[in-house]
Design a protein that fits this description.
Radius of gyration: 15 Å
Helix content: 10-25%
Order of helices and strands: EHEEEEEHEEHEE
Structural class: mainly beta
Largest sheet: 5 strands, antiparallel
Number of helices: 3
Number of domains: 1
Strand order of the largest sheet: 1-10-9-7-8
Strand content: 35-45%
Length: 154
């Protein structure tokens, strides 16, 4: 089975970097500087930020559709990040060294399956999930913090 991992679009977050810290706080967002690597996974570049990189920690609605699973969570976005375009069946390094939670949804946006997986085994898990024709897409989350990492489709 073939899968594609999708990064978030950087242009959706660019304006946040122009805001003052007070304006960010009003939006429930925060400007941070990476002080460890790994530790600040950018959802646009699908890379861990380098120490010293500026990021915005903000809430992102990763499942906006009307569903009992409608959801949002905190994500990091790195300043000046270019949107990653992983190859088909490629697992970015940012995902490959973490414990992940995978949540598989149908086209009705209802969860069909869920599991925990070591990042180095993510490709095999996605293949297995997409072998089920009832699964339309998979949300990948960092298991410890629970935050959305990326979306995968067939």
């Amino acid at each position: 089975m073939s899968f594609q991992i999708h990064a978030l679009a950087g242009h959706d977050f660019e304006a946040l970097f122009e805001l003052s810290d007070a304006e960010l706080k009003h939006l429930g967002a925060l400007r941070v500087t990476a002080d460890s690597k790994p530790g600040f996974p950018c959802r646009v570049s699908l890379q861990d930020a380098d120490i010293g990189d500026e990021l915005i920690l903000t809430n992102f609605e990763h499942l906006p559709e009307k569903s009992p699973y409608q959801a949002s969570h905190a994500i990091y976005v790195r300043k000046g990040a270019h949107q990653a375009t992983p190859d088909r069946n490629e697992v970015p390094h940012m995902l490959s060294h973490r414990i992940l939670s995978v949540r598989a949804f149908g086209d009705d946006h209802l969860m069909k399956e869920a599991d925990l997986v070591e990042g180095r085994k993510l490709a095999a898990k996605l293949d297995a999930l997409f072998a089920n024709p009832a699964i339309d897409y998979v949300h990948i989350h960092n298991a410890k913090q629970g935050c959305f990492a990326a979306r995968a489709t067939r």
